[in-house]
Amino acid sequence: MRLDKFLKNSRLIKRRTIAKEACDQGRVKVNDKVAKAGTEVEVGDIITIAFGEKITKIQVADLVEHVTKESSKEMYKVIE
C-alpha cells in the first residue's frame, strides 16, 4: 500500500493530499529513510512522522483498503 494512502486510511493524517505534502517536505520516514508519498509500506515497517515539534513513531500492524473509524486504530501500533 502507498504511504500516503496508509496515513489517510489509518487516520494518522486526515487527507491524502496533506499526507503527500508531508512526505514531499521530508517530514515522514519509513524505516529511518525519508520517504516519498508513493513508497510502498508493508506490515512491520516503522513510520516516523514529524508534526511540528512532536514526533510520532508507529509500526504498521495491518494493511486494510476499506476501513472504519473504529478499526483504523488497529492498522498501527504506537512506539513513541
From TrEMBL:
HAMAP family: RqcP
Keyword Protein biosynthesis: yes
Species per Swiss-Prot/TrEMBL record: Thermotalea metallivorans
Stretches that traverse the bilayer: none
Entry keyword set: Protein biosynthesis, RNA-binding, rRNA-binding, tRNA-binding
Protein name as annotated: RQC P-site tRNA stabilizing factor
Annotated family: Belongs to the RqcP family.
Gene Ontology biological-process annotations: rescue of stalled ribosome
Xref: Gene3D superfamilies: RNA-binding S4 domain
SMART domains reported in the protein's UniProt record: S4
UniProt feature coiled coil, ranges: none
GO molecular function: ribosomal large subunit binding; rRNA binding; tRNA binding
Quaternary assembly: Associates with stalled 50S ribosomal subunits. Binds to RqcH, 23S rRNA and the P-site tRNA. Does not require RqcH for association with 50S subunits.
Pfam family, one: S4
Entry keyword annotation includes tRNA-binding: yes
RNA-binding S4 domain ranges (all copies): 1-56
UniProt function note: Key component of the ribosome quality control system (RQC), a ribosome-associated complex that mediates the extraction of incompletely synthesized nascent chains from stalled ribosomes and their subsequent degradation. RqcH recruits Ala-charged tRNA, and with RqcP directs the elongation of stalled nascent chains on 50S ribosomal subunits, leading to non-templated C-terminal alanine extensions (Ala tail). The Ala tail promotes nascent chain degradation. RqcP is associated with the translocation-like movement of the peptidyl-tRNA from the A-site into the P-site.
InterPro entries: RqcP, S4_RNA-bd, S4_RNA-bd_sf
